[in-house]
């Protein structure tokens, strides 16, 4: 019988992959990842996967996008002119920038996804939005 991990601090090693097998993140080459289970510190699907694990268990779980970073919203992809960037900022694909949301909007992080001679395409979605994520999780410690 495993002890429920809810509200306990878990230390895990994990490797996260996309549907095509691309690794998007891993704790294997650094210190274990530590979080409190069940309080929303990590995406829901990751949290749920750890709840019934016992120390020493390894589990592979696929987290659907709605339990990860949500859907990819096309309305969060915008086209801007080069002149809208601060002086000295040269946008490049993959670059992340903080956008001033204006008076009524909080600042947000955008990713440059395309650069043409005339325009720059910015995406305010989370880089993993719209993607199902697979995690191999190893529970190292639970306190």
Short characterization:
With 143 residues, the protein is mainly beta. 6% of the residues lie in helices and 38% in strands.
Helix % is under 10%
- Assembly state: single chain
Query: Helix/strand-derived class?
Result: mainly beta
Can you tell me the residue ranges where pLDDT is under 50 for at least 5 consecutive residues?
none
C-alpha end-to-end distance: 17 Å
The count of helical stretches stands at: 1
Mean pLDDT: 90
Percentage of β-strand residues: 35-45%
SSE series? EEEHEEEEEE
Q: Per CATH, what is the topology of the largest domain?
A: Chitinase A, domain 3
Largest sheet descriptor:
5 strands, antiparallel
Give the arrangement of secondary structure elements.
Layout: E1 9-17, E2 23-26, E3 33-36, H1 44-51, E4 58-63, E5 77-81, E6 96-99, E7 108-115, E8 119-123, E9 133-142
Antiparallel strand pairs: 1-2, 1-3, 1-9, 4-9, 5-8, 6-7, 7-8
Word description of this protein:
The chain is mainly beta and 143 residues long. It folds into 2 domains: 9-70 and 128-142, Roll (Chitinase A, domain 3), CATH 3.10.50; 74-123, Thrombin, subunit H, CATH 2.40.10.330. The protein is 6% helix and 38% strand. It is built from 1 helix and 9 strands, in the order E-E-E-H-E-E-E-E-E-E. The strands form 2 sheets. Strands 1, 2, 3, 4 and 9 form a 5-stranded antiparallel beta sheet that branches. Strands 5-8-7-6 form a 4-stranded antiparallel beta sheet, with no helix packed on it. Strand 1 (9-17) and strand 2 form a beta hairpin. It starts with 8 loop residues before the first strand and ends with a strand.
């Amino acid at each position: 019988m495993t002890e429920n991990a809810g509200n306990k601090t878990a230390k895990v090693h994990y490797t996260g992959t996309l549907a095509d097998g691309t690794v998007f993140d891993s704790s294997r080459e650094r210190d274990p990842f530590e979080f409190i289970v069940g309080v929303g510190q990590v995406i829901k699907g990751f949290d749920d996967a750890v709840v019934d694990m016992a120390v020493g268990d390894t589990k592979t779980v696929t987290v659907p996008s709605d339990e990860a970073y949500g859907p990819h919203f096309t309305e969060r992809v915008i086209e801007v002119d080069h002149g809208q960037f601060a002086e000295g900022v040269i946008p490049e694909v993959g670059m992340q920038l903080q956008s001033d949301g204006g008076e009524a909007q909080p600042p947000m992080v955008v990713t440059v996804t395309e650069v043409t001679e005339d325009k720059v395409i910015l995406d305010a979605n989370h880089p993993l939005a719209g993607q199902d994520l697979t995690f191999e999780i190893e529970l190292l410690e639970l306190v």
